[in-house]
Amino acid sequence: MLHLKSLDEGLDIFKALGSEVRIEIIKILLENNGMNMNELAGRLNITNGALTSHIKKLEDCGLVMITNESAGHGNQKKCSVRLDKILIEVNPQEDIRNIYQTDLKIGHYSDYKIYPTCGLASDTAIIGEVDDARYFSHPDRYNADILWFTKGYVEYVIPNFIPFGQKIDQITLSMEISSEAPGVNDVWPSDISFFINDKKIAVWTSPGDFGNMKGIFTPDWWYPNWNQYGLLKILVINKTGTFIDGLQVSDVSISDFDFDYRSSIKLKLAVEDTAQHIGGLTIFGKSFGNYNQDISVSINYSPIAEL
User: Fold this and answer.
1) d(Cα 206, Cα 180) in Å, to the nearest integer?
2) Coil, strand or helix: which one is 289?
3) Which of 176, 233, 244, 273 is the most buried (most CB within 10 A)?
4) Helix (H) or strand (E) holding 87
């Protein structure tokens, strides 16, 4: 998912989508889970040169990606849709001076209870042994840029360094996640629960564990039949409720916590024993997947009203 924080940020995308031909290209690529350039040109009944011009506009703004695939007569370029959703904030963002921002490294969890299949890795190597939960306590875990497990949870402490005398009005969390299947399986649903200070605020069902193509940032040494990328999810909890990708998913609001500058804040990501779909969880950091980020945190705050 692409998160546009203003209309100005989306100008290139809006221009790229202002064409019936390019809209049709995206539809065809989605229907066929990608297609090579020659097939796509034939399907559209246009020349390869005309198609290249359209694809370049879509590629430049991040809507599609081009990969090389081996064929009987050499390499061919395959086009695929890169984004699953676009979230646009139409209203101007609040004063940036009233926002505290930080990142949670994937391996910097404070607590865990997980079950195989499981594992974690840095950008250069597997940490310990796969499917052995003991290595989630290994000192090298702090270098992890990806982790995965079938059920259980990992919990992170969110640093709270908002200024003295302020209360928290909104917490925004952004992360790239997916299911965890043995190997990979694009159709492998998993109910992933989100907790703040042990209170469940949301559940999102991941559709699968994606491995149909290499993640943009996934290291070259990574195994091709393992988790390649996830979906970027944006979770917001504010005074009106909890939202995922702009859609309200629960009535739990920031008021239920009464957070201020003194508060401890914990984030837990879990696949519960009672879930309908126990399909695991993979969390991707900067060196894996399609998004160059760890777990991103933004905290909006304002002065505590004087009594």
Assistant:
1) 10
2) coil
3) 176
4) strand 86-88
